[in-house]
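Researcher: Structure prediction, please.
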Amino acid sequence: MLYYILKRLLLMIPTLFGVMLITFAITQFVPGGPVEQLVAQLTGQDQQTEAGSTASELYRGAEGIDEERLNEIKALYGFDKPATERFFTMMANYLRFEFGDSYHHHQSVTELMVEKLPVSISLGLWTFFITYLTCIPLGIAKAVRDGTRFDVVTSTIVLVGYAIPGFVLAILLLVLFGGGSFFDVFPLKGLTSDNWEELSWFGKTTDYLWHMVLPIISSVIGSFAVMTMLTKNSFLEEIRKNYVVTAKAKGLSSNQVLYKHIFRNALIPLITGFPASFLAAFFAGSLLIETIFSLDGLGLLSYESIVRRDYPVVLGSLYLFTLLGLFTKLITDLSYVWIDPRIKFDSDV
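Model: Predicted structure follows.
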């Protein structure tokens, strides 16, 4: 086991390095970088760079700026150095978790991500807990009642919910309950009201939960079908095994067989995905949901950073998320052993 863990940790180094190298190389050829944008502003063009623009069009603004001034702009963003030197300097800083400052927001990338994190945590954690606490009991009930009317009706409902895109449902909920053409029941945007600071503790809690109802419904609905059907199929597979027949033949009740024997084995594929889902609850952001409900989270930040060519935010967040993803994958693999001792990682794995 120790050899396997050490081997996986060592493999993380080239994987992380390769991801950052490929992404960094791509950014060198993407038109409309920070230098071109600043040059456009200084020459009075001040227009948004489109992804389809050619390099010659983007550099056309440099014709109105002398070479000395252009070199100063490049030095401001660090583009006066060779690409290889900039890459290795960046990686050296990233190893110390120093991600630099955002070109657009003019503040530390770390501070910027921490500032946006509460929105993503709110969406992610509520979605995570509601999905697990609802879908696992529902999946178990469907497995026990396989083929009954309850199973058919619930399968139809969750599959219809799965077929509806989250952003479409979000727009529909806003129209119906967000003060659109029908009912003005839930807030239209944001996590809190404008007078949130003036509210009592209970009022703040209620106000926050009231704002989260529509975004959470829109985020959860797509996860219900996957988790519910995965739980059902996992339990069905265990229910049909010989040890269940043997346990019932020994006189054990259905509940005893279900919760003492089937439950642990059936939950293995669900629990092993727990680390990745829990981590995603903290750091994943839904761009469309955040945009529709005006929630300023990591999803919207990532999209805006790509559009604005804010490379410190793009590369810094990519480094952090890739590193966390690699460790989460390792924890997920190890959880198989912790949950099921029959699984062994040999030295030749």
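Model: Residues 46-62 have pLDDT under 50 and may be disordered.
Researcher: Thanks, that helps.
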